[in-house]
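Weekly modeling sync, notes
Attendees: AB, CL, MP (scribe)

Item 1: holo prediction request
CL wants a bound-state model with adenosine-5'-diphosphate before deciding which constructs to order. AB pointed out that an apo prediction alone won't tell us much about the pocket. Agreed to run with the ligand included and paste results into these notes for async review.

Input as submitted:
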Amino acid sequence: MTTRAMQVANIAFLLDRLAADTPPNQQIRELTENALEAIERRQKAGDASEGVIRWDVDWDNLKRTGEYKLSITDNGDGMTSQQMLDYLNALAVQGANQTQGISQNFGVGAKITALHRNSHGLVYQSWHDGKGSMVKLHRDDKEGVYGLASFELSDGPDWTPRIKDTFKPSVIDRNGTKVTLLGISEENNTCFPPEGRGMNWLITYLTNRYFRLPENLRLQVRVLTQNEEDWPSEEPSASTKTFNFQTVAGSKALFDQYAEAKGTVSLATADAHWWVFADPKEDSKKMSTRGGRTCKVGIVFQDEVYVHLTPPIARRILASFGIVFGADHVVIYIEPKKSLEVRADTARSRIIINGEDVQEANWFEVWGAEFREKMPPEIKAKIDEIMAKTERDPDGKTRERILERLQRIRDLLKPTRYRRDPQGTLRAAGEAPGGASGSAGDTQREGTSTGGGRRGGTSSDDYLADLVESDGELARQVVVSTKEPSVKWISRADGTREEGELEDLAAEIVGDSLSGDMVKANRDFRGYRDLLGFFSKEFNPGGDPAINRKIVEYIEEWMEGQLVEAIMTVRNLTNGRTWTPSDIDRALCSHALTTVMMTRFHVVERVKRSLSSDISKPSKAA
Ligand SMILES: Nc1ncnc2c1ncn2[C@@H]1O[C@H](COP(=O)(O)OP(=O)(O)O)[C@@H](O)[C@H]1O
Ligand SMILES: [Mg+2]
């Protein structure tokens, strides 16, 4: 049997399609990666001198055309003219690396991303053994194809003309490559960011992208300013103060530099790199010019960072790692171990573990649970330090009163079983047949890994429930806490509420809505502040701090009582059929808890009564 190999009928279409799925700065990563690989090959082959990669203006091009074009130069192994023909004008080519593979090089990097974004031209100048030649890739709009452009020379057209030695960049001795990005038109200035963000886009992107950079390597970026008119017209000498090179260190080195403590926790399937920062605002500001910030979560794979999460998602993940207070002080980057089958998607922007996207497969929950058990003392100290500021009930008197009140309605805390037709069962005598299993009350534990809702009972309803798959909670362990959650009041002024946390919302359960045992309540929330204002006006026009303390105490006590009651009772609705864990998530989300805090009539009545009785006995109020 023989096989006639499949051909690509429309490469340009395929290339455009693939490029459309990559983020705008992907070309920077791909060209940097090609340079890193070229240097590694050169060093492995015996020339161990320092590797240099420079993102710079192509000053020669500027001199010839008057246009600023971005370029990248490396002193790697370089290419011969034949190699350029072989490697650069074909997609998914093996190249000099010989490492094509699902988890390694795809061979669809720079050509897909950089060529698509530089359809006017992507010029490769490469030196091998001191001999330089060049090619120009572009999109031929007349023909509708991508490919090599011919250079029309006096003795006829050439695809890979020799380059004069005077144009060899200073970085390159005998081997190396320079790639120039001509953009999408003659006058397209490719030194500007593709998405109109600041002029430090290259340093920011590269620092964020690379977790570690190889040793014996200098990755540099030319610093440019916003205003093109101020830019130099020829390469500035190394001694000038402005427009010089900045060296990229990678995000690990950046965090290491500013953190007050750092370390790595070894988890079963990953290393968790963590950093604690003393002053999140100040440290974030200092790191911002290089794209760094605190309260961040990332995933590291093959020394690159793939997933960049910032608040509010990062805060939620950090909470699941046990960092319930002080998330602003922390950064955690997860580096999966070799035992996991990890790979990147074709666009190199997502991480796939065992065939599933990291976030969709809830890996953060798995890592977080283990991290909580192995919490580094430095992070623990930071959490405790901030949590201590929320303490206003040291002897637990308020909580005692709240629990005592709940005790008075304890029969109401456990809802009756759900029945489809309550009328019918009311008329029937004795036990209703085939009630749902596991009525609320005790801690319910269930591995629902087989999918489907809760099982139990023998009625036909339950049988049907077995066939139903409640979406999205296949592997979720259902653990309903029967303990009253504790409420911590947070505010910006106390330093217990972080910027953007619970913004204009009243309260939230920290961690899982079914089992989380801590609730954060927001003192800065409008509904709370209005209530405070209402009572201050009526009971404390003189602004007596002692009376003010009483007002706060009573308001919080009554609101806290409502929150705790709502959470307890809603949790107890869980039955896996009419109330699944995802229903509970919705019923107890921060917006829902805000609704609870907005029912203020009874709170007002109660607080009024307490204050009136205090004020009639002034000695107690003081
Ligand atoms: N800067 C460079 N220096 C030396 N060789 C290079 C350079 N860039 C690309 N090459 C060669 O071209 C081949 C194709 O590159 P590859 O990374 O596979 O695809 P892409 O160009 O799409 O990123 C490489 O294997 C390498 O041999
Ligand atoms: Mg590549």
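Recorded for review: The CA atoms of residues 67 and 187 lie 6 Å apart.
Action items: CL to compare against the apo run; MP to circulate these notes.
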